[in-house]
Amino acid sequence: MQIGVDYSLADFNEKSWEKDAAKMAQTGVKTVRLVDISWSMLEPADNNFDFDWLDRLISIFAQNKISVIFCSPTSHPPLWLYQKSPFVVKVDKNGSIRPIGEKGNRCINSDTFLDYAGRLIEALAARYASNPNIAAWQIDDEMEADICTCENCLEAFKAWLSEKYETIENINKAFGNPFIYNDWNQIAPPNSVSNPVLELEYKRFTCNSVRNFIRMQINNIRKFNDKAYVTTNTFIGENAPDYYKMNDLFSISLFDNNPVSESDSQAFYLDLMRGLKSKRFWVANQNNADKNSVAVNMQPDMIKGFALQALAHGADTVINYLWRAPVSGKNMFSQGIFDHSKIQSRRYDEFLDLCNTASKLSCIYKTKYISKIAILYSDESKFALNNQPQSQNFDYIKHLKLYYKAFSKLGANIDIIGQDCDLSEYKIVIAPSLFVNSNTATENIYRFVSNGGTLILTCRSGVKNQNNLCINESLPTDFKELAGIEIPEYSSLSDEKITITDKKGREYSCSQWIDNIKLSGAESYADYTSGLYNASPAVTVNKYCNGFVYYIGAVIDSALCYELANKLMKSCEVPRLKGMPEGIEITTRTNGMEDYIFFFNSSDKNASISLPKPMMSVVDGVEKDSINLKPYTIEIVRR
After folding, report:
1. Residue 144 burial by CB count (10 A; 0-12/13-18/19+): exposed, middle or buried?
2. Statement to judge: residues 338 and 439 lie in one domain
3. Residue 290: which region, alpha, beta or left (left: phi > 0; alpha: psi -120 to 50)?
4. Which residues contact 517 (CB under 8 A, 6 or more apart)?
5. What is the pLDDT of residue 295?
6. Distance from C-alpha of 213 to C-alpha of 221, rounded to nearest angstrom
7. Gyration radius from the chain CA atoms
8. Of 511, 536, 570, which closes a domain?
9. 21: domain range?
10. Is residue 633 part of a domain?
């Protein structure tokens, strides 16, 4: 495991470089990610490049045996480019020009911008692509698929539609528009009252534009080194591109991991990032405190604990944000390993401890994270559900997390994979709310169950076709035969809770949504015992070919979800660890002969865990029959 740091050049203080690099090397830093490299620093005037300072900086890190992740600065165009070509800026849904100075304010469909950005990247690649100290190139910064409605994008959107649909008649058929397009000039970007079909189609177009922009930079880099390692810092946000389609272009996935004490554990997102390429990934921007805050600091042990949590879930490089706090810019109050005072603080002591611990974990490096359980993630279903909320409190990601937490509480390794991924390696697959249908996903799911897999489907599945139009048949449409049910009626709930009772008489609750389920081959697993559909099935199970399908017609509570996870893991012979204290996360990595079990305390309370037999601690080399974990600490034992 390699530990690195983000290094900010916002204050451009060259006098600090040699001291910083020497201190990093002494501490155990192996990689530095160069952030805040302004395009203006590299090209202060049009076609006037200044790379000499960057030569010196990279050389200093090389002398200290620290490799560099180089971040291309295309998210911050220089002011001279805005002045020369004012139409390279983004235009929002309301037709307003986005303010200059905002990160990412450049239209990636502007030929002018692409020419300038491409020229810069090619000049950088010509100079550095074969430099042995460049470990990777980070393309841009937190790429977004947010809406730009400028003329550049409108013309590119029309061209994209023309290639996809060929004729206006085909577009009208696919869109189901309340307004009929008569010619291409009537097509416009979405606004606040647009057809949801247009909204999703424009999101697909924007994601494709992001891919084209990334591909342009990669091609320019690989002109000079066809084996160059390329990535970008994927982030969790409202306007994030389709994670899976974007990461197909990269050598490795890189994740902006920003855990804070007030939030849920990052385990779900770490597993999501590992699933993007189904292999190890890197972590960047692992923050030491709430960004831009001078009030909220990391709790003791979080710096080390969160880094090792990432290792547990498949990361082999963790880069902390950041080495020292910048004296300028909007992030000037971000709390680095060193603050403006340069005093060696608790954060440095904990970071040093992390580096020392990481140096002992070489045995983990070649291990694999193997799971027999997968959760399907659909970026298009997420977008469509956010665009047309199905109930007052329903949230797609929270719905996925409900099932993730239930299975992970039993110590299961869980893969979060794209909805179209191959499922043949899994025993249990959870497919929550596949709202927008995918033919590939449907075929994979039927094949998985037919071959003996166990599937969980939930409410709001099979609602729309691939064009985001409602399917004209009873729910769950393509999954009716698989689930052995039909849903003639459904209802959204506000704050109401409905009671569900299983066949053993145990009571649970559900909220947000309820399906009225009619059995057509399936059996009831639990029934509604209050509310509109009282005495009707709420959860069903169906034998289909060699497998089983559970359909959950409501947003169930965590207790029922846990009981269902426990039952399925037992019946599918997936090992379970029951009785773990609240907040304990368990993950396992293996080299085929030995298993390494990670116990991470994500809670703010002490926890004690009895091991089934004495096991050797990888961290301190002591054999233990029990583990005591303070908040945000981790133990790794070898089985």
Report:
1. buried
2. no
3. beta
4. 485, 486, 487, 536, 537, 538, 540, 551, 553
5. 47
6. 13
7. 26
8. 570
9. 2-145+209-362
10. no
How many structural domains are present in the chain?
Answer: 2
Task: Give me the CATH number covering residue 468.
Answer: 3.40.50.880
Q: Beta strands 485-502 and 507-519: pairing type? A: antiparallel
Q: How many CB atoms lie within 10 A of CB 454?
A: 22
In contact, 183 and 143? CB cutoff 8 Å? no
pTM of this structure? 0.95
Q: 82 and 229 in one domain?
A: yes
Does 268 fall in a domain? yes
Cα–Cα separations (whole angstroms), residue 497 to 475, 494, 504, 557? 23, 9, 21, 10
DSSP codes joined into one string, 65-125: T-EEEEEP-TTS--HHHHHH-GGGS-B-TTSPBPPTTSTT-S-TT-HHHHHHHHHHHHHHH
Residue 9, in any domain of the structure:
yes
Helix/strand/coil (H/E/C) assignment for every residue in 389-439: CCCCCCCHHHHHHHHHHHHHCCCCCEEEEECCCCCCCCCEEEECCCCECCH
Phi then psi dihedrals of residue 563, to 5 deg: -60, -40
Of 517 and 297, more confident: 517
Q: Which strand (E) or helix (H) includes residue 625?
A: strand 623-629
Residues 441 and 353 grouped into a single domain: no
- Using DSSP's 3-state secondary structure scheme, residue 134 falls into strand
CATH number for 288: 3.20.20.80
Q: Kind and range of the H or E element at 488?
A: strand 485-502
Instruction: Say if residue 99 is exposed, middle or buried (CB neighbours under 10 Å; 0-12, 13-18, 19+).
Output: exposed
For residue 362, what are the contacts with CB-CB under 8 A and spacing of at least 6? Answer: none
118, 223: one domain: yes
Single out the residue of 283, 259, 511, 531 nearest to residue 402, CA to CA: 511
Query: What value, to the nearest 5°, has the Cα angle with vertex 32 and ends 30 and 35?
Result: 170
Distance CA 155, CA 162 (A): 11
* 571/548 Cα distance (integer angstroms): 11
Q: 264 CB contacts (<8 Å, ≥6 apart)? A: 401
Distance CA 498, CA 512 (A): 9
Rounded average pLDDT over 242-248: 93
Q: Is residue 6 part of a domain?
A: yes
pLDDT tens digits for range 405-464: 999 999 999 999 999 999 999 999 999 999 999 999 999 999 999 999 999 999 999 999
* Same domain (yes/no): 443, 331: no
Residue 349 pLDDT exceeds 90: yes
pLDDT digit string (tens) for 364-385?
Answer: 988 999 999 999 999 999 999 9
| Structure-token pair, residue 568 | 């399925």
Q: Which of 342, 362, 382 is the last residue of a domain?
A: 362
Judged on CB neighbours under 10 Å (0-12, 13-18, 19+), 560 is buried
Q: Which residues pair with 380 in a beta bridge?
A: none
